[in-house]
Amino acid sequence: MNVFRILGDLSHLLAMILLLGKIWRSKCCTGISGKSQILFALVFTTRYLDLFTNFISIYNTVMKVVFLLCAYVTVYMIYGKFRKTFDSENDTFRLEFLLVPVIGLSFLENYSFTPLEILWTFSIYLESVAILPQLFMISKTGEAETITTHYLFFLGLYRALYLANWIRRYQTENFYDQIAVVSGVVQTIFYCDFFYLYVTKGRCCENSVAGTVSVTNPFSV
Predict the structure, then answer these.
(1) What parts of the sequence cross the membrane (predicted)?
(2) Which long-range contacts (CB under 8 A, 24 or more apart) does 47-52 make?
């Protein structure tokens, strides 16, 4: 554990709480990609299968449980409680375009050809691309609510802090997880254009009537 890992976890948790709070207060999930949230729920499910068999620390266990709960509650709100407000017409990213190559890569590139290890590897690869349906949705509609941009910002910040965590661990422990680091770099790259838009356009649109941030082709990568 180091400060970058803790800050990364807190940033990740804050992103999820912001999204849940937005849905609960507005009783609306317009602008939120249900497909991205399904992928994140799948990420946590396949990564934390060792929740009750591999105890590391109280902190580790609590964070795993909280992330799982937040992910599934978010999916329930989108497809259950507030499903009438879900913008399915714009949430059209084809999940098979992500799942098929991720599954294949998980079998080809892993540390051990065992079920738990393959599923853990799958979760790492999938997390690196799970945000794409959300980014695609923003690209398609051309705008995002301010609270959604905050959610994406803290998700990107979480990944950037985790990269710093890996660098710190390599310096202090001589520990290097190639799969996690490479996947983290890929995930961070997807946020680069969004970070630019968040800084240059997000602030000036904070007080707009609709509470949205207009974007133009946010994914040049």
Answers:
(1) 62-80, 118-138, 150-167, 179-199
(2) 47/119, 47/120, 47/123, 47/124, 49/116, 49/119, 49/120, 50/116
Query: Hey, what long-range contacts does 147-151 have (CB within 8 A, 24 or more apart)?
Result: 147/18, 147/19, 147/21, 147/22, 147/211, 148/19, 148/22, 148/31, 148/32, 149/194, 149/197, 149/198, 149/202, 149/213, 150/18, 151/15, 151/18, 151/19, 151/22
Helices 132-141 & 146-173 angle (0-180, nearest 10): 150
Residue 167 located in a structural domain: yes
Q: Per-residue confidence at 220, pLDDT binned at 50, 70, 90?
A: very low
**Percentage of the chain modeled with pLDDT above 70:** 86
Helix (H) and strand (E) counts for the chain? 8, 2
Q: Does 220 fall in a domain?
A: no
- Give how many domains the chain has, as a whole number: 1
Give the residue numbers spanning the domain of 106: 3-214
Question: Do 9 and 70 meet the contact criterion of CB atoms below 8 Å apart?
Answer: no
Q: Is the Cα torsion angle 209, 212, 217, 218 positive or negative in sign?
A: positive
219 located within any domain: no
Give the torsion through C-alpha atoms of 96, 101, 102, 108, to 10 deg: 150
Mean pLDDT rounded to a whole number for the chain: 85
Asked if the structure places residue 190 within a domain, the reply is: yes
